[in-house]
Every structure is written in C-alpha cells, then in structure tokens.
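Hallway conversation turned thread

IA: we were arguing at lunch whether anyone had actually written out Cation-efflux pump FieF end to end. Turns out nobody had. So, for the record, here is the sequence (296 residues) and right after it the structure tokens. Reply here if something looks off.
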Amino acid sequence: MTKKYAFWVEAAAWAATCVATLLLLAKLIAWWLTGSVSVLASFVDSLLDLLASVTNLLVVRYAVQPADSEHSFGHGKAESLAALAQSTFIIGSASFLLLSGLERLFKPVPIAAPELGIMVSVGATVITLGLVLFQKWVIRKTASPAIAADALHYQSDLLMNVAIIIALGLSWYGWTQADAWFAIAISLFILSQALKMAYEAIQSLLDRQLPLEEQEKIAVLSSSVVGVHGIHQLRTRQAGMTKFIQLHIELDDELPLVDAHTIADEVEDRLLVAFPGADVIIHQDPKSVVPKEAKA
C-alpha cells in the first residue's frame, strides 16, 4: 500500500465528508421552507451520504494500513466492506425516496417557495460536481473501490439535484405531480446502481479473479521469459489496490535450483512492471510433473 495511495484515498474521503455535511445543512433548511418531497428525498439522501462518507473515511484509514503480523496480506478488503455498507445505505435511501414519491403522487401538495429550493439545488449541483470530478481523478490514480462507491453517491446526487430543479420549476408553473414523478424516477435509478455496486463488492470479498484480459497478460508475460516452457494454476484476486497473483511456471527437469530461482525472479520482475504493487507468488515445477498435477 503506497503512501500516495493512502494520501489520495484519505483526501477524497475527507472531501466527501465535508461536502456531505455542508449539503445536509443546506437541504434541511430548503426542505423546511418548501415542503418539497424531492427536496426531502435529497435531504435524506445527503444524511445517508454523510453517514456513509464517515464510515468510508474510518474504513479507508484502516484499509491503507500496511500489513501486520495478524493481517499478512494487508487490510485492503476493508474497502470492499465499505463499498458493500455504502450500497446498503443507498438502497435504504432510494427505498425511502420511492415510497415518499408514491405517497406524494396520490396526495399532491403545493410546494412553498420553489425558487428557494431551486437556488439550493443549483448550489448543491455545483459543489457536488466539483467533488465528483475530484473523486474521479482519485479513482483513476488509485482504483479504490471504496472511493468508487462513494462517488456513486454523489453522481446520483448530481442527477437528483438536476431533477429537483426541473421538478420545482414545473411545480412553480402548476404541475404539482412533477415533484413526485421525478422522485420516483430518481429512486429507481439509484436502486439499480446500488444493486450493481453491492454485487461488485460481494464479488471482491469472494476473491473474484482479475479480468480475463489481465489474466491473459500475466500468462503472456510469464511465458515470454527465457527458460519458461509454460504456466499453469494461475490464481488471481484483488483487495483494495493490491493485486494478488499466484502461478506455477514450467521449467527444465535438470535445471539447477539457482537458475530456476533466477528465472522466477525475472518472471516476478516483469509482472511487477505491468502490475505495480502486486503481491506475486511463483512456484517452480519441472516439466515432467505438470501432467501429474493436471490430473490431481
């Protein structure tokens, strides 16, 4: 776990927490003054965002700690746990929003001071856009699943804020049900995204293999080293930013142990160039035992 990774992941988590706190206060005031169910939904979403971001911050601070005697593979899986927890927060938020929208659809209520709600939503959109752009930049640098999950919150918020602006504008001109319809549409979109995020987090916790193209790259790089006749039993996974790669390389039966070790080091070096920071374990097999291992 590199210091740069830890710095940027923690910075993104702190930024999300500060933004969530600011938006929560602004939306609480806007809902109190307007009575809009869309603004209420946005407030509840921001409340859950704040809880999720605080949870994310605490988990990320733990996840970036280096490996220790009790966790020799590091703490990277804590990020996937955070992503799963956040998806649960989002599903709860979206469900509340859906129920509120359905209730308001059948019991429309005129919105007070829609212009105030519009002003708050415009401000929230600008602030949230800045945060999302920063998070996207951090994700490109780190590939952190926890920050990717947090970014989903705020991308959903962007959509929600734009929808609220439109809904309040339509309500201003007399279409009172617009508020409810937009709340329902937003909730369904958020639910679909949250379910996808939960699935990805669960797959990571279950040690899903790296993507097929990365496995093929590992095989090509390993087999390209002089002295390697092939590879087998390739196993991969990822926890946080760390990729774990285990494989067996096939070598000449009579090869001296020192030479076998040198070849294995060359394979490891090539893999680390392609996958910086990876944890690589290489087992050296004589060619003659490969058929027996294949039958095992």
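OS: looked through it. The radius of gyration is 25 Å.
IA: good, adding that to the notes. The mean pLDDT is 82.
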